[in-house]
Amino acid sequence: MPVLEVRNMRKSFGNVEVLKGIDFTLEKGESLSIIGSSGSGKTTLLRCLNFLERPTAGSIAVNGETLLDCSDPSTLRESQIRQKRLHFGLVFQSFNLFPQYTALENVMIAPVLFAKENRVKDFDKAALKSEAEELFRNIGLSDRMGNYPHQLSGGQQQRVAIARALIMHPDILCFDEPTSALDPELTGEVLRVIRGLSEQNTTMIIVTHEMEFAREVADKVIFMDGGKICEQGDPHEVFNHPKEERTKQFLSRYSQK
Amino acid sequence: MEIFFQQLPVVVGALNEGFLQTLKLFAVTLLGAFPLGLIIAFGSLSRIRAISLATQFIIWIIRGTPLMIQLLIVYYFPGLVLHNPIWGGGESGRFLAASIAFIINYACYFSEIYRGGIQSVPVGQTEAGLVLGMTKKQIFFHVTLLQMIKRIVPPISNEIITLVKDTALARIIALQEVIWAGQAFMKGSHGISGAIWPLFFTALYYLVFNGIVTVMLAKFERKLDYFR
Fold this sequence. Notes:
The complex is a heterodimer. Chain A is of the alpha/beta class. Chain A has helices at 42-49, 78-85, 103-117, 125-138, 154-166, 184-199, 211-217, 235-240, 245-255; strands at residues 4-13, 16-26, 31-35, 57-62, 65-69, 88-91, 172-176, 204-207, 220-225, 228-233.
């Protein structure tokens, strides 16, 4: 059973249809790269998966459980959305760390508030802290836990944002162009962390313009164009032997760079 | 000059008493208007159009008319028009009426500053909270609020300093604040009459108090310097 199954997802903003029927599945431990030009609907797709946008039509199922089905109003209740979106994590292009909290507090705040709200009786803050510290070791920022976001470089901020998403143990971790706001020197450190996650078989969806990275890390690639999936499959197939004319065009423009 | 030094202790005593009333009105207004302003701000940001329009209408009325008239209406309307003098007589009734007029007036100004502050916090902050499973309430209190406060300290400081001086308007309903106390020495008070200098002297009270307020606000602003 696939961990994620997206069926016929459509999204319109007013008269503009941004997603025109997206279907794909993702297996546990797989990483999926989504490539395509700006405006092709990649980000909207991620935002729909994270319940930041409500699709106009279609369904999302995780581990066989239907989280959202636009034809079934009982799956659309606002009160349940919060629980459902915890299946997904999202790392933003612009990091969006909370500026008034230290790096460590940024990572710990969501689970702490969650425990407080649900009155978790055996909530073990010390255990959470050591888990957070372990995450900081993994992202190579053990010495920066006490720093505020503005004291960190963009690459460091993005690594903290990844740790912040990981501590919620999402089934699927999504990245929305995680390196697009970084200068090339800082891109590497973020990609290294993502590569590490992929080696530990974290289930991931990565929207990226880093073609080399997509080819190397992904188990599967989707090329989106004009709100549709134009081509999908094994990265070596899609990158080296694209079938669709539009894919060839897009990739050739990238290789010319 | 000799007369001045004879009058000084008497005048300072009376002005101190008046200024205490000024300070009380100042403090009560802030305590009431800070939270009420937030509620009004949520009203004008409401996605329910009827609520946001109604709130904006009220803000328009309150900001569009003189505070002095609002004081008169709050104080005299129940008694003279409705024949139901709810405020009772005396200084405490006048203080209550003045407090209500000031709180409503300042809450409307604060609400517009809050609204700007809330809207200036990037939407990405809210979205980051949402994808981490926080509730909207948690996001407001744990993520947005402090960032908003940091942004609104300068404009709110302006309002606070204006409020110190606006309290003088309350003497239109005979609240015995510091200017009222100073003016009394012209007609006759505490055995002194025909003296105008006590009235001028009240300015010093405002000046010193605003100096203290300014320093405190600057300190508070620096306290929030630890993040950007």
